[in-house]
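Cross-check.
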Amino acid sequence: MSIDEVLRAQDFRVTRARTLVWQVLDEAQSHLSAADILQRVHDHDESINSSSVYRALSLFSELELVRETRQGELSTWEPAHDDAVIHLRCELCDTTIHFDAPTVNNLRKQVGNITNFTPTSIDVRISGVCQSCSSAT
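Predicted model, tokenized:
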């Protein structure tokens, strides 16, 4: 389903800003800050302002189409994905790598079995140094 179809199915208007924000997120190979998204949107249409980008991100978050990851003061965005992904974040270049890990689903089961607590979302982040940065030093 395209973003236009998803928005229409939920009775939301399809706007140029929403379409471009989604296109930028969908094409990105990494997590993007709102400023990064705005810059890339401006590559297509400079008339779209930052508040339109933030409103689109907020709507996409409400519709569970995107995930926001907070790392200190920085928030980054990406299309929603299964939470059985561990985020590996490089401390030097801020790149985030997705690592599919069955460990996350095992953790979900263990938490449920041991504590009678049912996790609805798990967000695992590991900080370190990526291969590109470690090779450069």
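The chain has a mean pLDDT of 90. The chain has two domains: 3-79, 85-136. Passed to J.P. for a second look.
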